[in-house]
Design a protein that fits this description.
The chain is mainly β. The chain binds zinc ion. The site of zinc ion has 6 residues, from strand 16.
Length: about 325
């Protein structure tokens, strides 16, 4: 059945409940998705959730990026339990009646920075690490809510290698240096990582994205956007994390500007259509995502899924589609 309703009218789903999901050592899972993880919250389709997403980079300046509740997570979740990935995930949320083959429609309504600062790491896994002399550098940004921009407060070279998720660096032990004077970065809060539990045994790293969603790092997954995730296990087990306040199309330096966010979203269980991969709807665009270790194959997968969207759900003929969609890193079409 097509995703689009007759006459283009979107179904209104009146929420019956509003849930508050705080991020605490008991309601987060650090570095993994795991279908065996006990739910942090149970909801019904249509419910609203106000949830806290905490950045795993809060230790880059704990005075500015942590409050007591965030500090507790870093204190109480042992390093040995932060693996195999790096992101702090809030959840999972069990959606009643969700079954494999359903779609979870997640309408992101609001994303508010929790504190006034964020951190960017030019990391050892960054694209130009070698070109920058194999040195890692942290830059702390301050938000200006009046102009919705961020500017660098200071930067410091990270001593050693940034390998342990949740590393805490205490300033002024570090050497604070001025950075990017006169530069302002547009703030557009979004989630780097969010998704449902994959159907696997044991933990799956939060780092590579996949059909379950995960670390897609698309800056368009912000307020006003809707993501459709294919459900893989009973209850869907949806989690959010890796909050960002700004990022381009990719994390060239290694990370975004990482900062904790408070996120309001509505989850609607969809049994009336299927889609093979996480699909993003923004006010202007439909964007399909492709995944593979081989980027050419990933691009091909995304193109095939966009073709599927346009032929199965929009009603265009496959022959007509041979002139498009236009080449983009993420196959997207304007509505
Ligand atoms: Zn991130």
């Amino acid at each position: 059945m097509p995703l689009f309703c007759a006459h283009g009218v979107r179904q209104t789903v009146v929420p019956k409940n509003l849930h508050h999901l705080e991020a605490t050592p008991d309601t987060i899972h650090w570095g993994y998705f795991d279908p065996a993880r006990a739910p942090a919250l149970r909801i019904k389709s249509g419910d609203l959730i106000q949830a806290e997403a905490v950045t795993h980079h809060a230790g880059d300046d704990p005075d500015l990026l942590m409050d007591e509740k965030i500090a507790r997570i870093f204190r109480e979740v042992p390093e040995s339990d932060r693996n195999p990935g790096v992101h702090i995930m809030t959840g999972p949320i069990y959606v009643e009646d969700a079954k494999p083959g359903d779609m979870l429609e997640v309408r992101y309504l609001s994303m508010q920075p929790r504190l006034r600062h964020g951190s960017n790491l030019a990391a050892n896994w960054g694209y130009l690490y070698k070109e920058f002399g194999e040195k890692e550098r942290v830059t702390i940004y301050e938000l200006d809510p009046d102009t919705n921009t961020a500017s660098a407060l200071y930067g410091y070279d990270f001593k050693g290698k940034y390998l342990v998720p949740g590393t805490i660096t205490r300033c002024p032990e570090c050497d604070r240096q001025k950075a990017l004077e006169g530069v302002r970065v547009p703030v557009r809060p979004h989630l780097g990582t969010a998704g449902v539990a994959p159907d696997v045994k044991g933990r799956v790293s939060t780092i590579p994205p996949g059909l379950h969603g995960g670390n897609i790092d698309n800056w368009r997954i912000g307020a006003g956007a809707t993501m459709y995730y294919p459900v893989a296990v009973d209850g869907a087990l949806f989690s959010i994390g890796d909050p960002h306040i700004s990022q381009g199309d990719g994390e060239l330096s290694g990370t975004a500007i990482e900062a904790s966010l408070n996120v309001l979203f509505q989850i609607v269980l969809r049994k009336d259509f299927k889609f093979p991969s996480p699909l993003l709807e923004t006010p202007k665009y439909w964007i399909a995502h492709g995944f593979d270790e081989d980027l050419d194959q990933a691009m091909r997968n995304a193109s095939l899924d966009m073709l599927h969207l346009l032929t199965e759900h929009v009603g265009l003929s496959p022959n007509g589609m041979r002139s498009g969609p236009p080449g983009r890193a993420l196959p997207g079409v304007e509505k």
